[in-house]
Amino acid sequence: RFQPNVEAGFGSDTTAVAFNVEFGFWMKLNAEWQAYVGGGPAMNLYSSSHDDTTDLKAGFNLLAGLRQRSGLFFELKVGVIDSPDVKFTVGYTFK
Known about the structure:
Elements: E1 5-11, E2 14-20, E3 23-28, E4 33-48, E5 53-68, E6 72-81, E7 86-92
């Protein structure tokens, strides 16, 4: 399944915005929960207020997650190339 998304992160005088083009393989665990694994390319925009620089870098993400039927989800991403090393997300998908 195609699941593009945008993420933002803040800290250490740096702001990061990731534009992700990810694909996931979904597996039904039971009537309420699904698990998924996948990955895809990313464009990462890094802005530093410390030295007033902005960089656009390509990266790649590998991901795994759990989603409840209501929309609640938990996701772990591992980045390679110039993506953040590790991201853990708790979120909600609106239908």
